[in-house]
């Protein structure tokens, strides 16, 4: 039987209009390629990554996805010293015999975007996932695992085709970089293999203290009530952001709902988005404005948040759930140092990484974060709000100093999780 050499075999398509036309000549697209996959993919990670570092501990693990190969890789990351994170770079080597690569990169801390190429691995930003279509038609997928043991891991190019594991450790003890690699006959199956394994790794990592774990269990058992949530998940939701933006007040919200009602559009969930809160530094950039008080701002909501929620429910009884937006740290500029929140809770000034939102910001002190969230969500519930949209969580990652990220990340995430379960059950967007 004749055999075909490995590699993509070019082909073209022709379509008929008045005459026969080659697709690539008409559209400017490259030729397509046919790949002939091996019946038995070669075992061993060395068949897929050339010259990976000896500092990597490589273990083949059983994949939950049929017809895939899966490996787990770890390497040591230096400990943080003072305000500086421990940084370690480890080479995964050069992916062997590929025709195309794709990466999901961090355009900015809150945003992911695609990058791709057909030659040397060369994403322009840090990648969290990279995939390679090989000449034999197999797909290699690499996934960087972050959030375990206070280690952030990404992929970087080195200019020579190597995939570099770049890891940042905020802990005062040495940590581990974790990378998963999978090979499959399709991109989807290789992707599924690393994602299922990542889920197992994260699920087995307990970040909460004993006290927080007990509070979480209590919230799940005592505060999360059985509810019929079909409308929350499947009902039509109106969010003020797209139509009203940050120019927000009570009357505009009611007017918008009246227009929808007049058009026969029945909304079951409402999200009151950004700019309902009481803030300082009016007229400045949102990154310079800080949260001053739990109550809504007096200019847009002169009779308070409770009055707005009551009016909405009375005039639009079809609306079953009202959510409000807020940033995890309070607002885009966190907490105002001059408002009621700063007077009622301890605060701390932290540095942010340079860039669009760079500078300093005031945040609620780690000792008072649980109490602040408990008080805030109780206020919202008493005001007729039964759900929240919690945004701008990436500001934890923008904290410039390792000791600040270490003290605040788990504290804010755990306090938010417990309070949202206690007061809103499962009705949260984050």
Descriptive report:
Residues 1-5 have low confidence and may be disordered. It contains 11 helices and 25 strands. Strands 6-7-16-13-12-10-11 form a 7-stranded antiparallel sheet, with helices on one face. A 5-stranded parallel sheet has the order 17-18-21-24-25. A 3-stranded antiparallel sheet has the order 8-15-14, with no helix packed on it. Helix 3 packs parallel to helix 11 (402-424). It has helices spanning 23-27, 187-203, 210-223, 230-234, 240-244, 250-262, 305-315, 340-344, 369-382, 395-398, 402-424; strands spanning 9-11, 14-16, 20-22, 32-34, 49-50, 57-61, 68-77, 86-91, 94-95, 98-108, 111-117, 127-134, 139-145, 151-157, 163-169, 175-184, 237-239, 269-272, 277-279, 291-296, 321-327, 347-352, 359-364, 387-391, 428-429. With 430 residues, it is α+β, with helices and mostly antiparallel strands. The radius of gyration is 26 Å and the shape is globular. The longest helix has 23 residues, at 402-424.
Summary keywords:
single chain, 430 residues, 7-stranded antiparallel sheet, 5-stranded parallel sheet, 11 helices, 32% strand
SSE blueprint:
Elements: E1 9-11, E2 14-16, E3 20-22, H1 23-27, E4 32-34, E5 49-50, E6 57-61, E7 68-77, E8 86-91, E9 94-95, E10 98-108, E11 111-117, E12 127-134, E13 139-145, E14 151-157, E15 163-169, E16 175-184, H2 187-203, H3 210-223, H4 230-234, E17 237-239, H5 240-244, H6 250-262, E18 269-272, E19 277-279, E20 291-296, H7 305-315, E21 321-327, H8 340-344, E22 347-352, E23 359-364, H9 369-382, E24 387-391, H10 395-398, H11 402-424, E25 428-429
Parallel strand pairs: 17-18, 18-21, 21-24, 24-25
Antiparallel strand pairs: 1-4, 2-3, 5-9, 6-7, 7-16, 8-15, 10-11, 10-12, 12-13, 13-16, 14-15, 19-20, 22-23
Helix pairs in contact: 3-11, 9-11
